[in-house]
Amino acid sequence: MGKDIFVPMNILPSTLYSAIAHETRLRCLMLLLEHDELCVCELTHAIGAAQPTISRHLAHLREAELVSDRREGLWIYYRINPELPVWVTNVLQETANGVRGVAPFTEDLAMLKQMPNRPGAPRCA
Amino acid sequence: MGKDIFVPMNILPSTLYSAIAHETRLRCLMLLLEHDELCVCELTHAIGAAQPTISRHLAHLREAELVSDRREGLWIYYRINPELPVWVTNVLQETANGVRGVAPFTEDLAMLKQMPNRPGAPRCA
DNA sequence: AACGAATATATCTTTTCCCATATATTACGT
DNA sequence: ACGTAATATATGGGAAAAGATATATTCGTT
């Protein structure tokens, strides 16, 4: 008993789309698509918004089950929920294609790259 | 002069996603993905909402440039904007995959199929 | 020109969302 | 135990979105 059956997760289209309808939240997700894991201060620096703003939008994404989080010391790392249905992953990937080279998404990546004192620090540069 | 240069159309992610964040509007688009062209009364019947409701949501989609419309007599036919950027089309298609067999989208298709007196009437049954 | 059918818009109310700011929580170092 | 850094939550106000209903527009028919 207690067989660990695999229950595929379910996401309502309206949940996904109202989440990524907000540019700040989409910017977070686009950053997380390129960098598996990012902590709040990295996202805050890259996007250039106030910390509570980023934190609240991350909470929104977390409640929508689009991202998962993990604490490591003082830092909390977010990543795209690895159990997302395929169609959701595809939508995010297609969006990344759509915004490639477009502001403010490109700038976010640049800001992150030039951020000093990054906590997790990219292991393999 | 007046060279007819091809100017690719541009759609902001937030425009697309706030449009399809609303279930009624997504239902319209999903119906239009399967049936190239539908008039307002068909969409109204399939979805089962009040006519002004459908009309207003279609206006929203039109202003977002996600659909185009064409008048033929009393009827106004809507279709998915044929000039959408590829990534947008792909997002819609992926969404269709995601909602295949899911309520209320499946039911909408069934309701449309059993609608009497459809104006355009499917030419080739 | 009058009527009816299909669709669109306007108005009002209610709700939801967002920003800014302040404050709370959690964990590490001393 | 205290201080501080990283993050989270709470609050209050303002703007945008949505539903319901009424009314307007547009076109075909007689």
Structure, explained:
Two copies of one chain form a homodimer. Chain A is mainly alpha-helical and 125 residues long. In chain A, 51% of the residues lie in helices and 11% in strands. Chain A has six helices and three strands, in the order ααβααββαα. In chain A, strand 2 (67-72) and strand 3 form a beta hairpin. The first copy, chain A, is globular, with a radius of gyration of 15 Å. The N and C termini of chain A lie far apart (46 Å). The interface between A and B is medium-sized, with 19 and 19 residues. The first copy, chain A, binds a DNA duplex (30 and 30 nucleotides) through helix 4.
Topology summary:
The structure is a homodimer of 125-residue chains.
Chain A lengths: L12 H8 L2 H12 L3 E2 H8 L3 H13 L3 E6 L2 E6 L5 H14 L5 H9 L12
Antiparallel strand pairs in A: 1-3, 2-3
Helix pairs in contact in A: 3-6
Chain A binds a DNA duplex (30 and 30 nucleotides) through helix 4.
Compact description:
The structure is a homodimer of 125-residue chains. By secondary structure, chain A is mainly alpha-helical.
Do you know the CATH architecture of chain A?
A: Orthogonal Bundle
Instruction: State which percent range the strand residues of chain A make up.
Output: 5-15%
Mean pLDDT of chain A: 94
Task: List the uncertain runs of chain A.
Answer: none
What is the makeup of the main sheet of chain A? 3 strands, antiparallel
- Report the count of strand segments of chain A: 3
CATH homologous superfamily assignment of chain A: Winged helix-like DNA-binding domain superfamily/Winged helix DNA-binding domain
The CATH class assignment of chain A is Mainly Alpha
What is CATH's topology name of chain A?
Arc Repressor Mutant, subunit A
